[in-house]
Amino acid sequence: MLQTYEQFNDIGILHRPNEMTIPRWRQDDVYKLILGFKGPIIYETPQSKFNVRAGQFLLLNPGDKHQQVRCDGDKFLVEFSPKVVNEGHAGFPNGRS
User: Fold this and answer.
1) Neighbours of 43 (CB within 10 A)
2) E strand or H helix at 83, and its extent?
3) Four-way CATH pick for 4-87: 1.10.300.10, 1.10.10.60, 3.40.50.300, 2.60.120.10
4) What is the pTM of this model?
């Protein structure tokens, strides 16, 4: 299965099959919503380790230092800029939320 990434204004959506790479620390300027579908996905921050299982999610704030340690299933990730949060429902079509 191929990696899929779609960008819509200030929101990005990523689906990646189980491809584990060497963990590396990173800090991004966007919110990251990591969704668990199958096997666990393990993320680590300097403060803690998070095990995201099927049906669970993890939300990382902009600037949070993190790394993916393990991914035993497909990864589904939504990235969105602080602008999306700050503007609230104004970003939805026709101003609806």
Assistant:
1) 21
2) helix 82-87
3) 2.60.120.10
4) 0.73
| Nearest Cα residue to 34 out of 80, 77, 85, 73 | 77
In which order are the strands placed within the sheet that holds 67-71?
49-52, 41-44, 67-71
Tell whether the model's pLDDT for residue 96 goes beyond 80. Answer: no
| Dist CA 87 CA 10 (whole Å) | 11
CA-nearest of 3, 8, 63, 12 to 34 is 12
pLDDT digits (tens, 9 = 90+) for 61-95: 999 999 999 888 777 888 888 887 777 655 555 55
State phi, psi for 22 to the nearest 5 degrees: -65, 125
